[in-house]
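Weekly modeling sync, notes
Attendees: AB, CL, MP (scribe)

Item 1: holo prediction request
CL wants a bound-state model with adenosine monophosphate before deciding which constructs to order. AB pointed out that an apo prediction alone won't tell us much about the pocket. Agreed to run with the ligand included and paste results into these notes for async review.

Input as submitted:
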Amino acid sequence: MRIILLGAPGVGKGTQGHKLSDFYKIKKLSTGDILRRAVLSNSVLGLKVAEIINKGMLVADEIVEQIVFERIIDEADISSGFILDGFPRTLHQAEALDQVLQSIGAYDDIIILNIIIDYNKLIYRLSNRITCLECGNIFAKDAFKAISKDRAVIQCFKCGSFNCVQREDDKEDTIKRRLLVYDEMTLPLKNYYMKRNGWIEVDGDDTAANIFDNVINLISKKIK
Ligand code: AMP
């Protein structure tokens, strides 16, 4: 099973990706997570990448493509099945991915899941979200405050780490820029993919569990 997750920032690709990864027992590859880890390394490349991410812009195609394709082609744990979260994000990346899929004989059985939601809801969601730098878990600031009124410090629900932050690019001005970049660079991928056999689209304005049920149902019809 090979799945591409599409949709604007904050639409729930990460959450659905985790669920799909557990369900189908395949690895999820998030280019955002990989790039954020590169930033933490403080290398020259890491510092450059941090500047781009914090401005809400896209990292160069060659860098991201190299990261993703090395893993898809070379790593046994991922070559037979994967979920791509945040890749492709440009037409160049999509075309390059198709070439790689063709070379590994996987072009025809790819599932492309597009999650859609109103942008105003996304802006609220993103500006309210906290990311755990330890395990990558994402949760809502409001939900945390509601159950932990007595806690001054935010702690990850999943791994217990206190290393939880509001991402620099989850601040309102940057969110708006990310959505503009999405409209210009990534939205055209809908036209690129929508006629493919594996194309499915779901409404992201629902609970994560309901969206997941919907997704599984649609995927099962495609792989019958
Ligand atoms: P995400 O966590 O998927 O929202 O990604 C965070 C940031 O990483 C994006 O806003 C981009 O700056 C960068 N990024 C992630 N994936 C890609 C990609 N496929 N191409 C270019 N930049 C990316």
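Recorded for review: The longest strand covers residues 110-116.
Action items: CL to compare against the apo run; MP to circulate these notes.
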